[in-house]
Amino acid sequence: MNPNDEALAGDATHLTDPKIQSRLRKVADFQVLPLLLVAFASYQLDRTNISSALTGGFASAISVDQNTVNIGNQLMFLGVIVLEIPSNVILHRIGPRYWIGAQVLIFGFIAALQIFIRNRTGFLVTRSILGLAEAGFIPGAMFTLSQWYTREEITRRIAIFFFGMFGGTAVGPLLGAGLLRLDGMGNLSGWQWIFLVEGIWTITVSFTLLLFLPERGNYEQPFEPEKAPEGIDCAPKNLSRSKIPLKVILETLTNVIGYHPIHNAWIQMNSRSPEERSIGVAMFVMCATAGLMAVLMGLILTALQEVIYYVQNHRAEKEGGPTLAELNIL
Q1: How many domains are there within the chain?
Q2: Which of 109, 148, 175, 225 has the largest count of CB atoms under 10 Å?
Q3: pLDDT in tens, 47-87
Q4: Is residue 283 a part of any domain in this protein?
């Protein structure tokens, strides 16, 4: 296996025992992926519930106009850009369970505390902090998934993971409409109920992540090292708790190929290591955020690209032709 293939396959391909691979896949499919999907839906709820709050009179209650609301949203995106890469560096140091769980806990608290906003300054500061807290969640979650699946498996799981965003976008307005009916209950306005309930929900999800998001190394040692069958590597390869050298960060930032114009699949396929892939995906999210890319169109293009890459690479494996990654390099 060449270095690119090894990196793409995620951390799980060194396990040659089908029983171990099957166990990893079950844990990933029934624990890791569902937990991250729900967290993504919560992330999307907290990011977009401002629309439902505005419907409930939020802007007039804190005496701001639409221009101020737009500025607040841009400050939130700026926060995401500023801490996107540092967030992924921390993820590698302390592991996905604790970092992603803590991240969701923090932006859940911030989302809930928006019920106390009273003026323009409070709104702008809160939106800025919310963006800082959310920075790195998407590439961090994608990196975590890449540690559990092979190259053949990861594309489909990433697509499923992004259904969390669709779910949050779809459920948010419906939930907001219901919560607005609580206007006046408990001396809270309808928009305050939106921030409070959805923030508490996100906090609940964060505790679930902290308690139940598995560490991959815990599922890799069914044998004592001296009794392990030939070909089985018993050492846990928990790369999610490794340091990312500054050299890797600088090389990724300065590599012009890293700014490939068509989304993240190319990054996934051509990264030389999990650390480089993590920073590369973070760069992609930064660029998408900075460019104010239309979310829906971006997802449509991403999904289309995943299909094209899958078909071409599958054909290349069968017929011996070049993969799209090789064509892009050429």
Answers
A1: 1
A2: 148
A3: 999 999 999 999 999 999 999 999 999 899 888 888 888 89
A4: no
